[in-house]
Design goal:
The structure holds two protein chains of two kinds. Helices cover 15% and strands 33% of the residues of chain A. Chain A has five helices and 17 strands. In chain A, the strands form three sheets. In chain A, strands 1, 2, 3, 4, 5, 6 and 7 form a seven-stranded antiparallel sheet that branches. A five-stranded parallel sheet of chain A has the order 10-9-8-11-12, with helices on both faces. A five-stranded mixed sheet of chain A has the order 14-13-17-15-16, covered by helices on one side. In chain A, helix 2 links the parallel strand 8 and strand 9. Chain B is α+β, with helices and mostly antiparallel strands. Chain B is 13% helix and 28% strand. Chain B contains four helices and eleven strands, in the order H-E-E-E-E-H-E-H-E-E-E-H-E-E-E. In chain B, strand 1 (37-44) and strand 2 (53-55) form a beta hairpin. The longest helix of chain B is centred in the middle third of the chain and has 8 residues, at 92-99. The radius of gyration of chain B is 16 Å and the shape is globular. Chain B starts with 19 loop residues before the first helix and ends with a strand. The chains are: A alpha/beta, B alpha+beta. Chain A binds chain B through residues 1-8, 35, 46-50, 92-95, 97, 258, 260, and chain B through 1-4, 6, 47, 49-51, 77-80, 154, 157-160.
């Protein structure tokens, strides 16, 4: 659980990088330097109605004077991107949290394979900048329908040069995970894009150690077969017990009982509401905790338990 | 753009001299006299976790807080337990000590800017730790010292700075507002008779 400062930033520059993706630069109206971040980090954008959306930073992590984000208009989305497209203009004030990184770039590798699908390019663009600075060998595979539908393509070409490999399905072959090549203990793979891309790459690399294959998807997996059951939560510090009904989350129940808990996406992808637990069979359902942490950490917004769980609160 | 504020009742305030600390101190003689201080900065945050914003002047409302601040608005991070939090103050001297790494509790000096410490008023020449149970004047506004502020882990997390230990025992004063009014930068701060 970490609190993050929320800042009122100004949209310094804004342009369409494709017909449906807005690319914007954000600056602080008073401070010359924004909070530091590293490649793979995202910020929260807070809308006036209280909704919060996560966007990966796609600019240069070494430039603390501005943040860059790209927002794709998702007609079938939950409405956040449409709000942004309709309301944000150059000069607008936007409420942005300090960055958090759920997809940090490991410095241990000798070679890196970055695989992006569409708007999933954003964190990988900042990774490409960092890898170039580190002098590391990398290839960026970029999957999109066409060059004109590929966000930030000009910047990528500029940064990556021959390390950029585009897979435009409208005019050529689709990305084939075979392009990643054989396993190598010094290679790290980063994937960001739609679930099916993540699934395809992860199943192709199922023999690889987990700590060399890193993926991020900013979209909840809808498991239609999951039937939430009520369970009991115990707070270890006070012994208080709460019933979590089937239609409420742990986060809701704790808040109803006057616990002040941070949260952000409330769909198991951002990591804001992480909490420790002691015993109980936890049904995690989140997209952010690595399996190494699932033994004793859970996400209050989506994780549930069989019968009971004891929370480290 | 407006800050989103979920519908929520404003925080319950404890009257400063009803707080156990203020209650005891107000019934005892003592404390520091013969000082005169000055208001250096006024800051408010529109909502929990939002950056503090500097004001040249601000309106203090008895029983509520500073207009525009999260506690006045009812949009702060607070427990449902009533507490003294209408106005919070911190000494510039404490911030100066941190910037000298004095005492040397950390690897090096910590710069804690007035806009970052999340107390409302930054003051100089005011012995805040001696003002629990005392009435004092900031410009035309009268404040009542309710309890010492206590450093919180939340601030450490928010700023990413190891502040908990260096702020221990000099984290400021939580006050109630006895007389409403306007405060301005440079206002004199003086002890009043009980």
């Amino acid at each position: 659980m970490t609190a993050r400062l929320i800042m009122k930033l100004r949209v310094e520059k804004m342009r369409f990088t494709t017909p449906d993706v807005l690319h914007m630069q954000l600056v602080h109206p008073l401070r010359p330097a924004l909070p530091e971040w590293s490649a793979g980090a995202h910020v929260d954008l807070r809308m006036p109605d209280g909704r919060v959306r996560q966007y990966s930073l796609c600019g240069d992590p070494d430039d603390s004077s501005k943040y860059e984000i790209a927002i794709k208009r998702e007609a079938a989305g939950r409405g956040g991107s449409i709000w942004s497209h309709e309301n944000i203009r150059e000069g607008s004030e936007v409420h942005i949290s300090a960055p958090r990184n759920n997809l940090p770039l490991s410095a241990k590798g000798e070679r890196y394979i970055l695989i992006a699908g569409g708007i999933g390019i954003t964190p990988l663009l900042s990774m490409a900048r960092t890898l170039k600075r580190w002098g590391k060998d990398f290839t960026l595979h970029y999957c999109a329908r066409s060059a004109s539908a590929a966000p930030l393509l000009a910047e990528l070409r500029d940064i990556c040069g021959p390390s950029l490999q585009c897979w435009f399905s409208g005019s050529g072959p689709r990305f084939d995970p075979a392009a990643i090549g054989p396993y190598n203990k010094d290679t790290h793979v980063y994937i960001c894009g739609p679930q099916r891309l993540l699934d395809a790459v992860q199943s192709a690399l199922s023999e690889w150690p987990e700590d060399q294959v890193h993926g991020e998807v900013f979209q909840m997996t809808v498991d239609e077969n999951f039937k939430p059951e009520p369970f009991e939560a115990t707070v270890v510090s006070t012994g208080a017990r709460f019933l979590v009904p089937a239609d409420k989350s742990l986060l809701d129940v704790l808040r109803d009982n006057d616990f002040v808990m941070p949260s952000s996406c409330e769909m198991g992808v951002c990591g804001a509401c992480e909490c420790g637990y002691r015993d109980g069979v936890v049904l995690h359902r989140d997209k952010v905790l690595p399996s190494s942490k699932r033994q004793d950490r859970l996400m209050l917004c989506v994780s549930r338990a069989r019968v009971s769980v004891t929370l480290d609160l | 753009m407006n800050v989103y504020a979920p519908p929520r009742p404003p925080p319950k305030m404890t009257e400063a001299f009803e707080h156990p600390a203020g209650f005891i101190a107000a019934r005892k003689a003592g404390g520091a006299t013969q000082w005169r201080g000055k208001l250096l900065h006024i800051h408010v945050a529109p909502s929990a976790s939002y950056e503090m914003e500097e004001l040249q002047e601000a309106e203090c409302v008895a029983g509520r807080g500073i207009i525009g601040d999260r506690y006045y608005n009812g949009t702060g991070t607070y427990s449902p337990k009533p507490d003294v939090r209408e106005v919070t103050l911190i000494e510039q001297e404490a911030l100066d000590a941190l910037s000298r790494n004095d005492p040397p509790l950390q690897d090096g000096p910590i710069t804690l800017e007035p806009r970052d410490h999340r107390r409302n008023l930054t003051v100089v020449g005011v012995p805040l730790n001696h003002l629990v149970g005392r009435r004092f004047r900031v410009g035309d506004v009268i404040l009542r010292g309710g309890r010492l502020n206590f450093p919180c882990k939340y601030l450490e997390e928010l700023l990413g700075l190891p502040l908990f230990l260096p702020l221990y025992n000099r984290s400021g004063l939580n006050c109630g507002i006895e007389r409403s009014g306007i405060i301005r930068l440079g206002d004199a701060i003086e002890l009043l008779d009980q």
